[in-house]
């Protein structure tokens, strides 16, 4: 009897080993299969790319390495996608393999890197897309030496057919499948719950806790949950009448402080970007001062207008123009640049609704002044976007100086417009 119990315990342990790792791996395989089946054909054809070669070298992996399925990379490795005129894009992996990639079931053919020349010549593509990009680091994975080597291996005939895959990479990544959106929602849950715990009395004791203590708590939660980040140290900062006072430093949090945080987590190749705001009650206070609360509410009104205005089927530039027209009509003032607020009694506003996804700042269509190229891209259903804004409103308790209220949460664009992926920032959090 004791032997049976012993072996049963071993079996149970064996079954539980690796469950979370396998769960995440299976979900990434589903994403990859769906992307290759549903997104890649239209992205390649819209951008007139007959073959797409993603190169990797041991110790110098392309930014799309995880999207491609990872695997063991030797001296040279190539993920190759070819439009052979059928519904399905042919997928091959040369010089890369290993259990995780092969068991993922995504590729049609595995071979040696030495087969590259013959492989390409047999298919004779009219255009060959390479990850060369002036505008996006995520689409610029091809090194100069790898470019020279490809040119040498394939010869002048095919080197003349090389084109930038910049727009292809943007389209491939930013057009989301349901399995990606599900992961992003899960990442969002981690992101906001950790942030809201950080801005609570669980973590903060006024007069004792520093800004960097809060940031390290958040980093520790990332470590415990095996989460990545696009941004390094979380930005935990104090905003006063004269602007930002300190960020993630040894500044001790005091009563009366207005706290902000800006951060995101990474989960299964999906990265969030969001903000939260809190107020530390002074002695005798039971709620957020009216002026600070009003400033937050003005920001919420701006957020509501942005959400109602952005629709798919137009360029991001047209969406931005429509948002500012709606804000102006509602009585808000469009700022001429970041932090260039005015003395007007109106709330000054600037938006930066950028693409999110495989980094905190994605490479898809972006309704943001700091992404000029992506402003020209068309908003599509399934694009992930950060609804980000900065609203500056006068606060009587500060002698009429303006408080900058930053709001940011992540959403998906659908046929209906903008839809949230997790519970968004509902209020100024209160720390007693």
Automatic annotation (TrEMBL):
<dbReference type="InterPro" id="IPR000994">
    <property type="entry name" value="Pept_M24"/>
</dbReference>
<feature type="domain" description="Peptidase M24">
    <location>
        <begin position="186"/>
        <end position="415"/>
    </location>
</feature>
<dbReference type="InterPro" id="IPR050659">
    <property type="entry name" value="Peptidase_M24B"/>
</dbReference>
<protein>
    <submittedName>
        <fullName>M24 family metallopeptidase</fullName>
    </submittedName>
</protein>
<dbReference type="Pfam" id="PF00557">
    <property type="entry name" value="Peptidase_M24"/>
</dbReference>
<dbReference type="InterPro" id="IPR036005">
    <property type="entry name" value="Creatinase/aminopeptidase-like"/>
</dbReference>
């Amino acid at each position: 009897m004791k032997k049976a119990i012993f072996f049963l315990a071993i079996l149970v342990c064996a079954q539980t080993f690796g469950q979370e790792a396998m769960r995440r791996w299976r979900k990434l395989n589903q994403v990859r299969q769906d992307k290759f089946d549903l997104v890649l054909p239209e992205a390649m054809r819209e951008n007139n790319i007959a073959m797409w070669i993603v190169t990797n070298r041991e110790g110098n992996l392309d930014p799309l390495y995880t999207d491609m399925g990872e695997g063991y990379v030797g001296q040279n490795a190539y993920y190759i996608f070819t439009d052979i005129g059928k519904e399905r894009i042919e997928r091959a992996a040369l010089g890369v393999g290993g259990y995780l990639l092969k068991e993922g079931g995504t590729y049609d053919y595995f071979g040696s890197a030495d087969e590259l020349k013959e492989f390409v010549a047999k298919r004779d593509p009219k255009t060959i897309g390479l990850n060369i990009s002036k505008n996006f680091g995520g689409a610029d994975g091809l090194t100069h030496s790898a470019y020279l080597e490809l040119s040498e291996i394939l010869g002048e005939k095919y080197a003349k057919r090389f084109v930038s895959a910049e727009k292809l990479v943007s389209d491939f990544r930013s057009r989301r499948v349901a399995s990606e959106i599900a992961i992003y929602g899960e990442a969002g849950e981690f992101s906001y719950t950790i942030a809201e715990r950080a801005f609570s009395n669980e973590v903060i004791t006024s007069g004792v806790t520093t800004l960097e203590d809060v940031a390290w708590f958040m980093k520790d939660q990332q470590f415990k949950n095996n989460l990545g980040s696009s941004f390094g140290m979380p930005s935990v900062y104090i905003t006063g009448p004269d602007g930002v006072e300190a960020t993630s430093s040894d500044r001790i949090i005091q009563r009366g402080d207005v706290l902000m945080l800006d951060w995101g987590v990474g989960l299964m190749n999906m990265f969030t970007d969001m903000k939260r705001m809190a107020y530390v009650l002074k002695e005798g206070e039971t709620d957020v001062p009216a002026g600070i609360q009003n400033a937050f509410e003005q920001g919420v009104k701006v957020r509501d207008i942005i959400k109602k205005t952005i629709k798919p089927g137009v360029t991001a530039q047209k969406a931005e123009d429509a948002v500012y027209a709606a804000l102006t009509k509602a009585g808000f003032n469009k700022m001429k640049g970041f932090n260039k607020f005015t003395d007007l009694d109106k709330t000054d506003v600037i938006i930066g609704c950028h693409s999110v996804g495989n980094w905190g700042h994605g490479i898809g269509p972006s309704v943001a002044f700091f992404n000029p190229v992506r402003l020209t891209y068309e908003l599509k259903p399934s694009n992930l976007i950060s609804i980000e804004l900065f609203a500056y409103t006068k606060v009587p308790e500060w002698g009429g100086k303006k408080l900058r209220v930053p709001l940011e949460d992540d959403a998906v664009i659908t046929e209906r417009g903008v839809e949230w992926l997790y519970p968004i920032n509902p209020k100024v959090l209160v720390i007693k």
